[in-house]
Amino acid sequence: MAGIEKTMTAEASGTDAVLEDHVDRLRSQWARELPDLDTEPMAILGRAKRLSNLVAPSIEKTFEDFGLDRGEFDVIATLRRSGPPFRLTPTEIYTTLMLSSGGLTHRLDRLVKAGLIRREKSESDGRSLLVALTPNGIALAEKAFCVDMANELEFLKDLNVRERETLANLLRKLVQSIEGRANGAD
User: Fold this and answer.
1) What CATH number does the domain containing 106 carry?
2) Single pTM value for the model
3) What is the pLDDT of residues 134-147, one digit of tens each?
């Protein structure tokens, strides 16, 4: 199975040679141990997981440099990208972030203490609260996001623009397919 990766032509890959990576080595081991098992999914999904694991420490360090953990950044980023007035209900936030309401409450408490968000009464429903970014929260979300994007772009520097676009389009297609099946669309 790993031979599939290695037989890719230089012309198709855009490079002079296809170098073996960690996933190739794992697939080779499995091919030796279970020769009839098709490990092709590892070529994509295994690499996606490995990629995520490799970049996570850098992303987390970026947010740590701004006094945030990844979850706290996710909350303020969600509020910032919602646009003015940078307010959402807790339900809108935890649905977007796929969190439990309890997990969100803990994050919100920490962000209130840090002065990055505030809880406001809803004008349309006096029984509910809205979560709003403070001016400090807006500024911090923007700064942290800009630094994060610069760092993440650095990881992609060995791919040209066309390769990045192709990869992004293929990943989008895969994600949409999987999401569609998970939501019962197929």
Assistant:
1) 1.10.10.10
2) 0.81
3) 999 999 999 999 99
